[in-house]
Design a protein that fits this description.
With 191 residues, the protein is an all-alpha fold. The protein is 60% helix and 0% strand.
């Protein structure tokens, strides 16, 4: 017995190029806001958008025909930003510290303070739980974006603007978030 093929059809290079060329000004405003969100102030939005366009147009990332192009572009930018941040974690920048005339190090405190950052175990547990929470909303790009914004501490008005939602639509998404989190908690999936 043959199994049905599970491969998805993707846009050809010409089709995706046409789709990207036909994005409206409003689409680009939204895309820029999404890029700014994923860049977290460390990656310029235009740079992230450019990298995403290059990845899509070069064929490195293929957009399935059943996926909204803006949602695909947003996911591509999220992935590229995430890869960039992981690479920075593996090779941090070193700052040159030059002692001043008095022997103090300019710009550094004169004594060591205890680290306020979480331990590796705490970071891992937190990352696993955040990943689980985000996975609850993988089927809805806008809700996923709102959850990420909430985890980053963004305000309701910032999230409404980022997701291009009016107050009623935004509140509807917030109710969906609460319902899914309550359901997952009631099943003991997380605390």
């Amino acid at each position: 017995m043959q199994t049905p093929s599970t491969t998805k059809t993707v846009f050809s290079a010409d089709e995706i190029s046409e789709k990207l060329n036909n994005l409206s000004t409003a689409d680009f405003v939204r895309i820029r806001k999404i890029a700014a969100f994923y860049g977290k102030g460390y990656i310029e939005p235009d740079e992230l958008i450019s990298k995403a366009f290059i990845a899509i147009l070069s064929g490195a990332r293929n957009c399935p025909t059943d996926v909204n192009v803006i949602a695909f572009l947003a996911n591509t930018m999220r992935s590229l930003a995430s890869s960039n941040f992981k690479s920075l974690d593996r090779s941090p920048e070193f700052l040159e510290v030059i002692p001043s005339i008095e022997g103090e190090f300019d710009g550094l405190p004169s004594r060591d303070y205890p680290s306020q950052s979480p331990s590796a175990e705490e970071t891992l547990l937190l990352t696993e739980e955040i990943g689980f929470v985000l996975s609850l909303f993988a089927d809805d790009e806008i809700t996923h974006l709102i959850v990420e914004g909430l985890l980053e501490g963004m305000s309701s008005s910032e999230l409404q603007e980022l997701a291009c939602l009016d107050k009623t639509s935004y509140e509807s998404k917030r109710k969906l978030i609460r319902r899914r989190l309550d359901k997952a908690k009631s099943k003991g999936m997380f605390q």
